TrEMBL record:
Record has Ion transport as a keyword: no
Top-level division of the source organism's lineage: Eukaryota
Ribonucleoprotein among keywords: no
Name assigned to this protein: CTLH domain-containing protein
Pfam families tied to this protein: LisH_WDR26 (PF23627)
Length: 231
């Protein structure tokens, strides 16, 4: 393909892809579908193709504000991530701020910076007006710290953020893969005469087992045996 042609913009139907839908019933939002494909390409390492798809479709995996926010969370830059979060214009910021401050607090404890940890609770977490029991639970970690675990894992933090942030701000990782896997599992469960290996399932066709493949003819009758019969 000629380089000049490769650099041309994709043909336009006259509308914005972000407003289009796909599927026979028009239930699939084009923008969501493309974002899921971009994520699906990124997971196995096809980053260049994912970037090209973003360019051609003009639909990014995440908005610039969300991308910056996630990068700061990944780097455990909690102060900066709180500032970046404000660019997302959330209706409920306190839940997200609490999650980020908790990580900052736990990081101080991990580094044995107890005064800084206490100051985080007193000066930053307490003003959020939380349940006193939660504050007590956080403070108790100073006397009985948890082992380094999932609370300090940025991937776990990201999953928790997905539950707190509005739908679509963050694309759940491998979401397309899980959707397809769930669909195949549903097809398998709804197959009344299922009798094949999972390796025979395919995304290229709807799965069903023909009942004619179920053994239905008597080949031999054993009438005088006195013990178990093994095939």
């Amino acid at each position: 393909m000629d380089d000049a042609m490769a650099d041309q913009d994709p043909p336009s139907s006259g509308g914005d892809l972000k407003d289009d839908t796909l599927g026979p019933n028009g239930l699939v939002k084009t923008s969501e579908f493309i974002r899921l494909i971009i994520d699906a390409l990124t997971s196995p390492g096809f980053n260049a193709i994912a970037t090209e798809l973003e360019k051609q479709s003009r639909i990014p995996l995440h908005s610039p504000a969300a991308k910056q926010f996630l990068e700061l969370v990944k780097n455990q830059e909690w102060y900066k991530s709180i500032d970046a979060m404000k660019q997302l214009q959330l209706s409920d910021e306190n839940s997200v701020i609490l999650l980020l401050l908790e990580q900052k607090y736990l990081e101080f404890l991990k580094n044995e910076q107890v005064p800084e940890a206490l100051n985080t609770v007193r000066e930053e977490i307490t003003p959020l007006g939380l349940d006193p029991r939660l504050l007590h639970k956080l403070a108790s970690k100073i006397l009985k710290p948890d082992p380094v675990g999932e609370e300090e894992d940025t991937e776990v933090v990201k999953k928790k953020l997905q539950e707190l942030l509005p739908l679509g701000v963050i694309v759940p990782e491998r979401r397309l893969e899980y959707l397809l896997d769930d669909d195949l599992d549903t097809q398998r469960g709804q197959c009344d005469f299922h009798n094949v290996q999972d390796s025979d399932l395919s995304l290229f066709s709807y799965h069903y087992c023909d009942k004619r493949k179920i053994p239905s003819e008597t080949l031999q009758v054993l009438s005088e045996h006195t013990d178990e019969v093994c095939s």
